[in-house]
Design goal:
- This protein has helices at residues 10-54, 67-76, 135-144, 202-211, and strands at residues 56-58, 80-87, 97-101, 107-109, 113-119, 148-155, 165-169, 178-184, 191-193, 215-222, 232-236, 242-244, 248-254.
- It has 255 residues and is an alpha/beta fold.
- The longest helix has 45 residues, at 10-54.
- The protein is rod-shaped, with a radius of gyration of 46 Å.
Length: 255
């Protein structure tokens, strides 16, 4: 006959109920704390993203604006203008924005700076030192620097070599698009016999005559069969005429 199965006593039942209750209470507390932590974390991340996006702005297009207007446009969205460089630009007025970095519509945080390059407008070239130079050399240098001769005055004196620049206005290293020259034509009262220069090389003859103080101009380039380009084919005055310092000499060369 099988032995009788033991039955739990009433004291054991009374011990198991409080233990189960404490475990259940602790479990619910852990779940509640976890849920609260998760909710707080999600709220914190959302708040951070909102705060970050609230401080982000898009860079406006300030190209071509004046420095004052560009500064105001950036300030309206919380950004700061920073001039990185200035340079001459004939296509953009002075004190206007030539370029910007970063580009328009770039996203930046507020209080960041936007670098710009600013135009100084059209700046006149630097005038070279022409005093003491032959007139022909001065003409070439000014043409290369895109400087116009506003006026060409003349004197006749033995104090300086004939055909050289003895004064200029404005002075060297100033900025100007125009310059006036004072050229010495040599001591007055001296006359020369005009040589026959037909058939000689034009550029070389012009240079020699100008160094001697004569006002030489090439008036035309004409076709002349059988001659290479640049050879003198006509002169005024003709060979044998009396000429003095400062007298004009006109030449025509082959084309």
């Amino acid at each position: 006959m099988p032995a009788p199965r033991p039955t739990p006593s009433s004291s054991a039942k009374s011990v198991s109920h409080p233990l189960r209750a404490r475990v259940w209470t602790a479990g619910r507390l852990i779940v509640l704390v976890g849920a609260l932590g998760l909710t707080f974390g999600l709220f914190f991340l959302t708040a951070m993203r909102v705060a970050i996006h609230a401080r982000e702005v898009r860079v406006p297009d300030i190209h071509g604006l004046s420095v004052a207007d560009a500064t105001s446009a950036l300030a309206d969205v919380g950004l700061v203008l920073k001039v990185d460089a200035r340079h001459a630009d004939p296509k953009v007025p002075a004190d206007h924005v030539v370029s910007q970095e970063p580009a328009p519509n770039t996203v930046l945080r507020r209080d960041r700076s936007v670098g710009v390059r600013v135009s100084e407008g059209q700046r006149d070239p630097v005038v070279p030192d022409l005093v003491g130079q032959p007139e022909r050399t001065a003409d070439i240098v000014l043409a290369q620097d895109q400087i116009q001769i506003a006026n060409r005055a003349e004197i006749g004196t033995a104090r300086y070599p004939a055909g050289v620049v003895v004064a200029q206005d404005p002075a060297a290293q100033d900025r100007s698009a125009r310059v006036s020259l004072l050229v010495n034509r040599g001591e007055g009262g001296v006359t020369f016999v005009m040589p026959d220069v037909i058939g000689t090389l034009g550029l070389r003859t012009v240079d020699i005559l100008r160094r001697r103080g004569f006002r030489v101009t090439v008036t035309a380039e004409v076709p002349y069969p059988g001659l290479p380009p640049g050879v003198i084919v006509r002169q005024t005055p003709q060979a044998g005429f009396q000429i003095g310092y400062g007298d004009p000499v006109q030449l025509e060369i082959s084309r």
